[in-house]
Structures are given as structure tokens and as C-alpha cells.
Amino acid sequence: MSEFTVETMQGTCLPISIGGTYRQSGGAEIESFDPTTGQAWCRVSDCTTGEVDAAVAAANGAMRNPAWRDLTQSQRGLLMLKLAEILERNIDRIAEIEVKDNGKLLREMRALAQALPVGLRYFAGMADKIEGTTIPVNKPDMLNFTMREPLGVIGVIIPWNSPLYMMVRAIAPALACGNTIVVKPSEHASAGAIAFAEMFSEAGFPDGVFNVVTGYGHSAGNALISHPGIAKIDFTGGPATGRIIARNAAENLTPATLELGGKSPHVVCDDADLDAAANGVVAGIFAAAGQTCVAGSRCFVQESVYDEVLTRVIDKARAIRIGDPRRDDVQLGPLALWSQVEKVAEFVDSAKEQGARLVFGGGRPSGLGNGWYVEPTIFADVTNDMRIAREEIFGPVLSVLKFRDEEDLLEQANDSDFALASGIWTQNLNRALRFMRRIEAGMVWINTYRSPSVMSPVGGFKESGYGKHNGFAAIEEFSRIKTVVIDYSGAQQDAFVMRINK
Ligand code: NAD
User: Fold this and answer.
1) φ, ψ (nearest 5 deg) of residue 380
2) Are strands 418-419 and 421-425 parallel, antiparallel or unpaired?
3) Residues 252 and 375 in one domain
4) Residue from 32, 45, 157 to probe ligand 1 pocket by mutation (most atoms less than 8 Å from CB)
5) Same domain, 305 and 201
């Protein structure tokens, strides 16, 4: 078995993985770029519909294969533990491959790679604890219970920003429930998923339980999510794509979990520890160069501390070290895609035109070669109707808005199409709890930000999507309830009248 590394992948066209076997796709080749140089470093294939069919068939075959279907729940858990152990041995390799593809900090990608075995172990432990309930139905001599069973083949579509982290948060609960998987990673960052398939086979999972096809969203991605052999779609990506997926999924009545974008409010109240808050605000937007779904891109500051917080945030932004994401002292790497660099520039222009005040950054740093770097950028005097306050930029651009009091804050913060994450800095517990209660967001962080856990459900409302990952909520996403009724009275029934509670 070959071992995938940045060196062995460099300059090659990566294979796909179907039924536990790597093969070269017959589809057209797509270049995958290294954002630190702006040069292509490897290629992936745009899989044909036939190849997607083959992957779905392999996954459906595995669902019927006794080697997977008849495993006990504990045996499934043990396989997942084995996979966790293999991943743990490969953390550096995984992180290096992912940095090559998306240019995020090596330290960040290593932390995310370390979270992979943690996630697998958490859900491995759940595999034999997925229970139904017994229901008293007011019918003597009848036993009524529910059981949870797998759905079938899960089609997993992931973005480029944190590929394996997004993938494992879907596949770990899906495997714990006994499903099988076909993954279509982003055309911009497929290498991690390809390398992962090798570790999956090494763990001893039966062939076909995990398959990877590559390619563009509109071709390979669409073929996967429109496939009638898919039992559920797990999608993480942008809201526009989420809409297309929901529409196409509806054709086959395929259920979907949609984890989409955000425009998350990050609030600093007048009673906050202002230095901690300014740190939180800076990290909340500039970590990962703003390329996280939960980026705290709308910073609301109470008017009496507005100038002071703005000054502190600017000072901290000025101190950010930009450069090669593999260096330990660097805090801001390049953007993953050239189109993202262009998108940020377009938002900067639009913000200026709409009257926002550029107080820091706004351009591209010099002396960093052809890498796709953008300065940390801060706009003050932003109002909630401006495009930079309403649309997801997915780059290092912070909008700083002002609020008067709690009513004003909630009105502005909730006036958004998105509702993914939120954060508030205050030393007043009552105030924090009132905000928690009324903010429209799937997650609320109080005196902290960007602090997820595999044990804690994540997911948005409104245009940030629906469904949950992590925690026991994820088990509900990847299993279905079957209801069983047993009559043990031995009595003859009047079969012509429904035995309903009257
Ligand atoms: P994207 O929507 O462009 O692409 C995501 C994936 O969908 C890719 O694999 C792409 O090939 C595929 N795709 C595109 N069109 C498709 C189609 N018609 N049918 C099937 N698949 C299709 O998103 P992106 O640019 O890769 O990622 C950035 C977005 O992801 C941001 O909006 C970000 O907020 C979001 N995101 C959300 C979360 C979350 O947990 N809510 C996490 C990470 C990223």
C-alpha cells in the first residue's frame, strides 16, 4: 500500500477510492493549487457519472455485506478505535497535506488533525449505546418499542477550509450508526480525503464502507447528491450551494443536513474585560484568515467603549505576523483560493463606496512572493445595511458596528440572513444570559470564541442551514427510528377495525 505524503502526491494526478481500491479516474484533470506559491502542486479528476455510480454501488454493496451489516455495534466501535489510532500516528502527515491544499496555518491544521481521533473515539464509544425506547401505549398485552437503525449510504460533500475535520465530524457518527459513505471533497482540497482512504482500509473496515470520488460540485458533486442510491446527504459549504443541494435532494426526497455560512455577531459590552475581548475579536475573525464558517465578522461594540475597543483591535491586528503558514511564528497565512483574494478586494471597494471607514489593512502585503496573501482588514462605522455587514466574505475582513443598549444590539444582531454562531464579552452574567436567550444563532459563546467540542452540537438556523453535527444530536441525524408493536395477548383481533386508542 502506498503512503501518501506531500512529496509522493506532488505533481501527480491523485487517484479516487472505490470499494477499498485506489484507481485512476477517467475524468478530466483539475489542478490543485498551493496558496503559498500560487502554483499547481497536484491534480485531481473530475469523476464521471459512471464512477460516482460505482462508488454508490460499492457503498450500497457494503451495506448488504454481512461483514459490515452483521457486525455487532461494539465491533463497529472497535474498528473506529483502530482508525483513530492510525490517524493519531499520522497527524503531522495529514496536517502537511492539508496545508499544501488550503494554505491554513500548520499549527491550526495540526490541531484539527489531532481532533480527528478524538472525534472518532467519542463516536466509537457511542456505537453500542444507541438505544430505542419502550412506549406505554395504553394497550394491555402489547409491547411497543422503537429501535434506531442505519440509513444506508451517506453522501458527504465537504468544503476546502477544514476538509478532514468536516469529513470526520460527519462520518464518525455515520459509521457509529452502521452507515456507509461516499465522500466528494472540494475540488480545491481533495488530497486529505484521498490519503484518509488508505488509513481507513488499514483499520480493517470491509471494502466499500468508505469511498472517495473527486471533482467539481456541478458534475461529480451533483451526480452524488442526485443519486437515488443515496440515503442522506451531509453537506458543508456555502449557502448558494446549499440551496441547489436542497432543491436537487428534494427530487429524490433525500434528507440532508446543511452546514452553511455565517455572518456571526461578536459583541463587546461596556463592562467587558476589554483586553480579553479585543483578543477574542481579533482571533475570532483573523484566525484561519477569516476562512471559517463561525468567523466573528460583525463586531458590535457598545458606544461608550467603541473608540477604545477599536484602538485595541487595530493595535492587535497591526501585530499579526503574516507569512508562510508552515512557520510556527506566523499567525496569518494566505487565502486558499485566488478567487477569494478577488472577492475580498471587491468587498473592500464596496465597503468604501457605501461609507464604511477603512481603519486598517485593505490591501495585499508586499514581499511574500506570489502567495495569495491579504492584509487583516478592519472597517469602522459599518452599519448593518452595508454589504460587508450582510454577506459572508470568508476572508480576514472585520466590520465594527456600534450599539446603544441590549434592545438595539439584539435588533441589529438578529437582523441577518444567517444564524450560525455568536459571541458576547461581558462581566454581567444576567446580561450574558439575556443575550443567550434572544440571539438567533445555533451557538453562543460567552467570554470566549471559536471553542467547539465534539461533544457539543453545532449547526445553524436560517440561511446557515439545518441539522446538527457533534454530540448525540449527530446520531439522530444518521439513524432512523423504527417502531415495533408486539401483541402477546394471544387473543383474536377484529382485523377490520384499526386498533387505535379511543
Ligand atoms: P462551496 O459551497 O463552494 O463548496 C462546498 C462543496 O460543495 C465542494 O465540495 C463543492 O465541490 C461542492 N458543490 C458545489 N456545487 C455543488 C453542487 N451543485 N452539487 C453538489 N456539490 C456541490 O463552499 P466552499 O467555498 O468550498 O466553502 C466555503 C463555505 O463553506 C463558506 O460559506 C463557509 O461558511 C461554509 N462552511 C460552513 C461550515 C459549517 O459548519 N457551517 C464549515 C465550513 C465551511
Assistant:
1) -100, 175
2) unpaired
3) no
4) 157
5) no
CB of 108 shorter than 6 A to ligand 1: no
Active-site pick, 293, 299, 392, 440: 293
Nearest-CA residue for atom 26 of ligand 1? 159
CB 186 near ligand 1, within 6 Å: yes
**Chain segment 222-235, per-residue pLDDT in tens:** 999 999 999 999 99
Q: Is residue 39 part of a domain?
A: yes
> Looking at the domain assignment, is residue 497 inside a domain?
no
Q: Taking Cα atoms as reference points, which of 466, 422, 462, 459 lies closest to residue 444? A: 422
CATH number, residue 208:
3.40.605.10
- Closest residue to atom 23 of ligand 1, CA basis: 237
Judgement on whether residues 478 and 378 belong to the same structural domain of the protein: no
For residue 22, pLDDT over 90 is answered with yes
What pLDDT score was predicted for residue 150?
Answer: 98
Number of domains forming the structure of the chain: 2
DSSP reduced 3-state for 164:
helix
Distance between Cα 258 and ligand 1 center (Å): 10
Q: Are residues 474 and 368 part of one domain?
A: no
- Atom 9 (ligand 1) nearest CA: 186
Do residues 471 and 390 both lie within one domain? no
Decide whether any atom of ligand 1 lies within 6 Å of the 222 Cβ.
yes
Q: Biggest alpha carbon distance in the chain?
A: 87
**210 and 318 co-located in one domain:** no
Write down the pTM of the prediction: 0.96
Which of 166, 212, 234, 236 to mutate to test ligand 1, by most ligand atoms within 8 A of the CB atom?
236
The verdict on 199 and 297 lying in the same domain is: no
**Residue 257 beta carbon below 6 angstroms from any ligand 1 atom:** no
Q: Which atom of ligand 1 is nearest to the CA of 187?
A: 11
- For 45-62, write each residue's pLDDT tens digit: 999 999 999 999 999 999
Judge if 74 and 95 occupy the same domain. yes
Q: Is 293 in the pocket of ligand 1 (CB under 6 A)?
A: yes
Confidence of residue 495 (pLDDT cuts 50, 70, 90): confident
DSSP code string of 393-429: --SSEEEEEEESSHHHHHHHHH-SSEESEEEEE-S-H
471 membership: H or E segment, kind and range: helix 471-477
Spatial contact of 292 and 443, defined as CB atoms under 8 Å apart: no
- Residue 502 forms part of a structural domain: no
